[in-house]
Amino acid sequence: MTDLIALSAAEAAVQIARGHLSAEDYTRACLDRIAALEPKVHAFTHLDSDYALEQARALDEHQVRGHVTGPLHGVPVAIKDVFDTFDFPTECGSPLMKGRRLARDAAAVARLRAAGAVILGKTVTTEFAYFHPGATRNPHDPSRTPGGSSSGSAAAVAAQMVPLAIGTQTNGSVIRPAAFCGVIGVKPSHGLNSRHGCLLLSRTLDHVGVFARSLADAALILGILAGFDANDPDSRPGAPPDFEDAVEAEPKPRRLAFVRTQVWDKADLEARRAVEDLARRVGAETVDLDDSFAKAWVDHRVVMAADMARQFGEIVSSGRESDSSEQLRELLAEGAATPALRYLAAQDNRMRYRAGLGRILADYDAILTPATPGVAPKGEATGNPAFNSLWSLTGLPSLTLPLLKGEDGMPLGVQLVCAPGDDARLMRVARWLSAEVGAGL
Amino acid sequence: MTDLIALSAAEAAVQIARGHLSAEDYTRACLDRIAALEPKVHAFTHLDSDYALEQARALDEHQVRGHVTGPLHGVPVAIKDVFDTFDFPTECGSPLMKGRRLARDAAAVARLRAAGAVILGKTVTTEFAYFHPGATRNPHDPSRTPGGSSSGSAAAVAAQMVPLAIGTQTNGSVIRPAAFCGVIGVKPSHGLNSRHGCLLLSRTLDHVGVFARSLADAALILGILAGFDANDPDSRPGAPPDFEDAVEAEPKPRRLAFVRTQVWDKADLEARRAVEDLARRVGAETVDLDDSFAKAWVDHRVVMAADMARQFGEIVSSGRESDSSEQLRELLAEGAATPALRYLAAQDNRMRYRAGLGRILADYDAILTPATPGVAPKGEATGNPAFNSLWSLTGLPSLTLPLLKGEDGMPLGVQLVCAPGDDARLMRVARWLSAEVGAGL
Hints:
- Two copies of one chain form a homodimer.
- With 441 residues, chain A is α/β, with parallel strands linked by helices.
- The first copy, chain A, has helices at 2-6, 9-17, 23-41, 49-64, 107-114, 151-158, 175-181, 215-225, 243-248, 269-281, 296-318, 326-336, 340-360, 389-394, 423-436, and strands at residues 44-47, 76-80, 118-123, 164-169, 184-187, 207-212, 256-258, 285-286, 366-370, 398-405, 411-417.
- Chain A has an eleven-stranded mixed β-sheet, sandwiched between helices.
- Chains A and B meet through helix 11 and helix 13 of A and helix 11 and helix 13 of B.
């Protein structure tokens, strides 16, 4: 069983396709692992072992009958509980959405199902994918946060409960938990993965991202999720990047810009040293963001507060006070008090930051920057997204690689960021960086 | 000379291409017409006869040398003074932009130039393409408004000063002046024509439209303007409609929905009767917009006020009070006082109106509706855009045809509206409707 859960999704898919492994056995191995660790990790909010096995057996039968199978045939995937699913409730981490059931899958879930995935269950999210934590704990140390908001998805992949999971990021909700849990997290370019049927916080800031333990696995699931969807107003037509090709190619040397950003002093000394050290080892050149970027973090907050006030203001104010967190109510009040002019200025500034970063990335393959201010903090709070806000605001593709270690041997992520639409290059640079430091991701 | 100015752009382009007419002679005929009527009409704000003839001669030489020519080779086009041009000032109808010169053409102007057009001059716009009128008068009756904001473009085409002109619409600025001046005006689907290099009032509401005297001419210029431009964030990739094919096809019977809208009582009795009569003649079925559309006009105002406050608030408040109109300052103050939540609600409502209209248009080829509340009013004010706001807000393609007459024989437009992206069908329906009533447009 240990062998099965250690398989990558790509390896498992090949074994299943060749008939060397059944979807049922593979799914059972994941379920056994969950049974063993879930009492400590609390990654799932909706899980039904019988139903998961039923899906797996149906896929096995499908294959036995000689039907065409998809690239994830028989591979379990965990879904953050903000994506609509026809078969599980979708409660978005809020008592206000308790028992909410929907008739249809979100576009991302539908694509995974069409690719043959076993939709294993729904994972814990913070309240409305904002800050108020759910029950999930960090698999490396239960006294620490897994990060948020995609807490359960990151923890489940880190704990080898499942090889792949999906999540969302509006501020730092994919990169931060992935870094804290020591897995790969990818937040692709804004508009690459459809958000149709996914809890809407902010059209401007929301992204669908993935969690995996290898770059090949991340490429596999991204290749399934990416692509045009007329139901997402920010989706752009055009062929999606060839992710598998990107990670299979022989890595060639890459030019990195080491960007500390205006929030560098939020990182702890250990994290700063570790990332500086890595930057030096791989020949990254230090590039400072000038003062024109100074207000990006405030602009991110302005857009997020107003957009979330629009989405959640009524439901939260019409609910009982005990059914929402003070932190969320404060944000919504802030959003409700925002003038349209301030909001529109933030939107315009966003395009300027995007253009400014584009000018830097004209000279480098990618930006190297911390994923988080340090390792996962102890306690409940899900940690600081300061090193994620700029890339969420500008929609640049970013990923975190578990290349470093910090205090108590806890994982420390390293973030790479590319130009908008340059998602394939992002994977290529990640492959090279991983090889360069001997990590073999 | 009378013969030349009466030519359609399509006919002139053919004659020039065949060597039967020179660009210089054709341009001179337009300039002579302008010289005769401009003292009464005031359509142009920047015109340089020598420079126009210079462009025409260069195009003639180009052709004589056997170079490839574009579909508008040698045909003069007038440009609303809100499009950037490298060779003329771009003053946007405001003293605050007096003498403003830019290094590059707007995308629309660049496309026209590449197609071989003579960029004849810049036409009068109201102040910042909002309401405060410029000097232009209605060619049919100088005591009446030409409508706005694309006042000069509509009047120049109506007065046969030029066969084609371009303008912009944020509320009713293409359809209204076209209807008042008795020409064809087309406002295509939002995002079809690039707005790059064009005065920005509102990303949501701004459209680039055209003025022509025949459907073939409208199709000719739309075919040049339409198409993807990565510099316009709302431009969508994909092949543009085949406009020429649409107007050349044999007209077949069309199902029309006669939609009076919530502003029906703003139309005068004469206009209501004339449009009802036409609807009956062509077998249009009356379809009422339910109460869910009632606030669309207010939502349009909310978006326009906030977006324009963002674009013009600083420049207007930092200028002298005498350099802006009270009407504009009131709008900007209203926009500055708008909460982000109200703005975002209006944006969401907009998508609902769009979906609701899409449901109606699932059963009909097009909506038939008034273009204006009546004929061009006497005096300075540019008239009421009530019959245009809904289609500007929702981005549906619309056009007006000069099919009716009102008081004093003044032209009265009839508006057709299709589903988003259905611009080719819009032209087909227009061709059919024109044939049905024996107008031969």
